[in-house]
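Researcher: Here's a chain I'd like modeled. Treat it as a single chain, no partners, no ligands.
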Amino acid sequence: MDNLKNLDLNLLRTLSVLLAEHNVSRAAERLHLSQPSVSVQLAKLRDVFKDPLLLPGPRGMRPTARAESLREPLAVALEALNEVMSPQQPFDPSSAILTWKIAATDYSEATVLLPALPLLRESAPNARLSVVQVAPRLIARQCELGELDLAFHTAEEAPEGLRRRTLFKEHYVLVGRPDHPRLKRRITVEQFCKLDHVVVSPDGGGFAGVTDAALAQTGLHRRVMLSVPHFTFVRDVLSRTDLVAMLPSRLVSADAGLKVVQAPVDVPGYEMVMLWHERLHRDPSHQWLRELIGTAINTAGQR
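Model: Modeled as a single isolated chain. Structure tokens:
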């Protein structure tokens, strides 16, 4: 790269035209420059390459051996530079062959990726998704290193320094099996506390969450009898036992195998956000993927 430090790249274009025309006047006409300007540039080129490059002959100027050796690599270099400086081409999902790396919990797999997947498969049939488990403390670093293209997380716990887009706002509902004897009618907060609950503890083994924090503000506590790390297991637990759970509404809103009721305790909800690094913000394929996910989420929310 040191060889380019003091080089005006326009000189390379002039050299290419001179090697094609073998004539300063014709080269000047093609370059829309004056003949003296091209002569000055040729002098600079001779100094750069330490070679005459073009010598007077009976029928115009003739290239030296050094100039002939430059002809092919010069053409390749100029074509590459032109490609670098050309406007970015629009992304065509129908012909794209690529892999997107996405970090998601089982909750965001069900509420974000699953609604987007049919549209993604239809629009970009040759694109692949690599979905990995979210590691909240590593998201920013993984995005910076290019190990992740997108991540889904709650806005409150999302790391700083990443681009974000809010996908939806979520709230909690009380869920149990359809014939649960305690959910046949509206229950009081005291009755709620006496039910046996299951909680999802992503870190593993915890028996308290946002519901317990809300209850504690009024001096109440509930019976948490089971703690699991994933939402996917909770559905089977609820359908086969008398346990109940406070779950995000989008996870269970269309599940006919569960009974969903309004909880007698006000539990704060959260925002689900999509996260990505600045280096991908203007990439056409990444912009397309983000828009597709946003469209799919909006469509699912209107059903």
